[in-house]
Structures are given as structure tokens and as C-alpha cells.
């Protein structure tokens, strides 16, 4: 496909990985494999529980299941190759493999960002406008939220990748990370990339920062509303809110650091991109299955149904 990009003479990038020691790489292989298996199992468990359990058929859980689905996709873009790479001496990725990786990561990342906002709106309506909850958060609203998150993810990634794909890459092709990351790849282009760097800072960094600030403010308003109208249900509501805030902080925190200040501190970036690819997708399962009583009950029902199914004569 090189005819698409006449100025690019390199056909692949070299990834440096995390360590050059064979033993440490095997250790990373085992750790990352275990984490990835947990990500897939945990997020699948959430999706399956929400789809099959009637008790969880509410907007909040539908959004959560869709978030888990995005997590599953997000972590599957790069992590399987990263894991296989730990056992390879020379880690490479083709030019287009690298572009597709960045496109998909920002696609699912942007979608996830939008879903987190949708989840906050859902909780906001539930807490601050409880009487209108059923009429506002109806099936149609939910579908609109879901469609919007796919569209926003697509626009977000396309707006950056359109320019990145066209960059001339002619010389250096070594990426000091475990997968292709937008700031690191842009740095390799043999042309002035100042404008594109600004675009990435605005599109990924500032966007994350603004969303994060708005989300924190709206969760603070919800907390205050809850405290003022303390009722029976409020401790459950507070625990749901704290779960949401934890996920939001751990999702946006690394994103803001990677993309709002992307073109100077590489060692931090490397650490954060690991965090982003293996820790964040594991968060929803951990936070929601360990802390949420309804989710726990649903998983118990699901597992007894499954054992019942297999034990049935
Ligand atoms: C996403 O949400 C919709 C609710 O509108 C639901 O029908 C669907 O099953 C959810 N998707 C996943 C993967 O959970």
C-alpha cells in the first residue's frame, strides 16, 4: 500500500519494548498474559450478566456493559501483539499495522470517553431529576448516547490520523515503547510536525482535560445533592458515584498526562501507556464486580444458572 504515501521509504517500525533482558521479558510475558486474560474474562462477565439478567436491564447497566465492550476492544487492539512480542527478540510492526493500531486505540478510547460522559449524565438525571428519570433516560436516549459515542470516537481518531498517515517517514523508525503511540510516531516524521503536535494536544490532551474537569464538577454537584437530600438509598448512591469517579479519574488521568504534555517526557509516557493499555481495562470489572451488590448478585445468579445447565439430566 506504499503507493498511498510516496514520501515514506520505511515499511516498518521497530519497537524497543520494556526491557532487553530475556528473563525480565519472560516475566513481563507472564504478567501481561495473566492481566489480559483477566481483562477479557472480567469484561465478558459484565457484558453477559447485563444482557442475560433482567435485574440489570436499566440504562446505567446497559451503559456499563457497553463500556466493558469498549474496554475489551481497546485492550485487544495492541495487547495481544505486545504479549507475543515479549517472546520475540526483534519486535517490529508494519507501517500500516502501526497506523491501524493508533486509529483503533483512539477510536475506542474516544468512544469510551463519550460513554463515561453518558454514564455521568445518567447518574446526574437519576440524582438531580429523579422524578423525570424514566421519561428522560428512555430507550431512545440510550440509543442516541450509544450512537454518539461511536460517532465521537470515529471523528476523534479520524481528525488526527488523517494527518498522521500522510506524514513522510524516511529515516528513524525506532519507537521506544511497546506499541505505536501517536506522540512517539509523529516525532519520527522527517518534517516539521509542530502544527500536528498542537492538533494532538488539543484533540486528545485538552479534550480529555476539559471532559475530566466537567465530569468532576458534575459529580461534585451530585454528591452535594445527595448529602442535602439524604435518604435511605443514598449510601448505595454514594458508593455508585465513588465507583464512577474512580473509573473516570483513572481513565482520564493517564490520558491527560500522555497527550496534554506529550512531546517532552518519554519515560513517563512509556509507563503511562502501559497503565492505559493493561490497568484501565481491568478497572471496570474490579470496581463494579467487587463493590456493586447488584452486580455481585447477578453474577451469582448467572453462575448458578450455568452450573444448573451443566448438571441438569
Ligand atoms: C449496549 O446497550 C444496549 C442498550 O441500548 C444493549 O441493548 C446492548 O446489549 C449493550 N451492548 C453490550 C455489548 O452490552
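^ C-alpha cells above, recovered residues below v
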Amino acid at each position: 500500500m506504499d503507493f498511498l504515501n510516496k514520501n515514506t521509504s520505511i515499511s516498518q517500525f521497530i519497537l524497543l519494548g520494556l526491557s532487553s533482558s530475556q528473563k525480565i521479558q519472560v516475566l513481563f510475558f507472564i504478567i501481561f498474559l495473566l492481566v489480559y486474560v483477566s481483562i477479557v474474562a472480567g469484561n465478558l462477565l459484565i457484558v453477559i450478566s447485563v444482557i442475560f439478567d433482567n435485574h440489570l436491564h436499566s440504562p446505567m447497566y446497559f451503559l456499563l456493559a457497553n463500556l466493558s465492550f469498549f474496554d475489551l476492544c481497546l485492550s485487544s487492539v495492541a495487547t495481544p501483539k505486545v504479549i507475543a512480542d515479549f517472546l520475540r527478540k526483534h519486535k517490529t510492526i508494519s507501517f500500516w499495522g502501526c497506523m491501524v493500531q493508533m486509529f483503533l486505540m483512539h477510536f475506542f478510547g474516544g468512544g469510551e470517553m463519550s460513554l463515561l460522559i453518558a454514564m455521568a449524565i445518567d447518574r446526574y438525571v437519576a440524582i438531580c431529576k429523579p422524578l423525570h428519570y424514566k421519561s428522560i433516560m428512555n430507550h431512545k436516549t440510550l440509543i442516541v448516547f450509544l450512537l454518539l459515542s461511536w460517532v465521537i470516537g470515529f471523528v476523534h481518531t479520524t481528525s488526527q490520523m488523517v494527518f498522521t498517515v500522510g506524514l513522510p517517514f524516511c529515516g528513524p523508525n525506532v519507537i521506544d515503547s511497546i506499541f505505536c503511540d501517536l506522540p512517539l510516531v509523529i516525532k519520527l516524521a522527517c518534517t516539521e510536525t509542530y502544527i500536528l503536535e498542537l492538533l494532538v494536544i488539543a484533540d486528545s490532551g485538552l479534550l480529555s482535560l476539559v471532559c475530566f474537569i466537567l465530569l468532576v464538577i458534575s459529580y461534585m454537584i451530585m454528591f452535594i445533592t445527595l448529602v442535602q437530600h439524604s435518604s435511605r438509598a443514598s449510601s448505595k448512591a454514594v458508593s455508585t458515584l465513588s465507583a464512577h469517579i474512580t473509573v473516570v479519574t483513572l481513565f482520564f488521568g493517564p490520558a491527560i498526562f500522555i497527550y496534554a504534555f506529550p512531546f517532552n517526557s518519554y519515560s513517563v509516557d512509556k509507563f503511562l501507556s502501559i497503565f492505559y493499555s493493561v490497568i484501565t481495562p481491568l478497572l471496570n470489572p474490579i470496581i463494579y464486580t467487587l463493590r456493586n451488590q447488584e452486580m455481585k448478585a447477578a453474577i451469582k445468579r448467572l453462575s448458578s444458572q450455568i452450573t444448573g445447565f451443566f448438571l441438569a439430566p
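The pocket of 2-acetamido-2-deoxy-beta-D-glucopyranose is lined by residues 47, 50-51, 62, 65-66, 69, 142-143, 146 (CB under 6 Å).
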